[in-house]
Specification:
Strand content: 15-25%
InterPro entries: Aldolase_TIM, Ribul_P_3_epim, Ribul_P_3_epim-like, RibuloseP-bd_barrel
CATH topology: TIM Barrel
Catalytic activity: D-ribulose 5-phosphate = D-xylulose 5-phosphate
Function: Catalyzes the reversible epimerization of D-ribulose 5-phosphate to D-xylulose 5-phosphate.
Family: Belongs to the ribulose-phosphate 3-epimerase family.
Oligomer: single chain
Bound molecules: D-xylitol-5-phosphate, zinc ion
Largest sheet: 8 strands, parallel
Order of helices and strands: EHEHEHEHEEHEHEHH
Structural class: alpha/beta
Number of helices: 8
EC number: 5.1.3.1
CATH class: Alpha Beta
Length: 221
Amino acid sequence: MNDFLIAPSILSADFARLGEEVDKVLAAGADVVHFDVMDNHYVPNLTIGPMVCKALRNYGVTAPIDVHLMVKPVDRIIGDFIEAGATYITFHPEASEHIDRSLQLIKSAGCKAGLVFNPATPLHYLDYVMDKIDVVLLMSVNPGFGGQSFIPGTLDKLREAKAKIAASGRNIRLEIDGGVKADNIGEIAAAGADMFVAGSAIFNAPDYKTVIDKMRAEIAA
Ligand code: DX5
Ligand code: ZN
């Protein structure tokens, strides 16, 4: 595995030019496309669904697509994202009636599966499903919107999650999402994250490559 993955969240991209924006951010050095799915039910916002994921694949995007489901119910939409070409599919355990079943659905299609933890959601949801997990995603803001500030308590939670992953002995990514910027990514990496979602910090900048290069330099520092 690559040591560190940068996953720009297209939530902050220009949706009227989405294909070009994704090309541009990948050319600027991004590793993964983070794809935020919001349903105006589990979270108070409405974004994009499987049709848009499929459209990006048809447009020619071959990079991994990291589908972050902020929807309830979960299972109904998983199959659509598998067909639409998702690489990773992650969901919030509180939003699934049957967490193990949702994970199995994702894994049975050969996609990578993960659980997402809101700032106040305990990590114990991992306890009996670690064998089906490829990525643990910690939210460092409350889900629903881009452009919020990083919640500092997430650093301790990252360390806790990192210890759980190490104890499992499995090759599991530790992903962080919300308020990640070039000026805090260093301490976030030091706390154990190895996959970094950043929306506004990248797409609101005039030059994507400058920000991504700066982020990588801070991670390596
Ligand atoms: C929030 C989304 C994030 C969001 C991050 O619910 O899950 O992926 O796009 O945006 P920034 O990086 O601006 O906090
Ligand atoms: Zn997200």
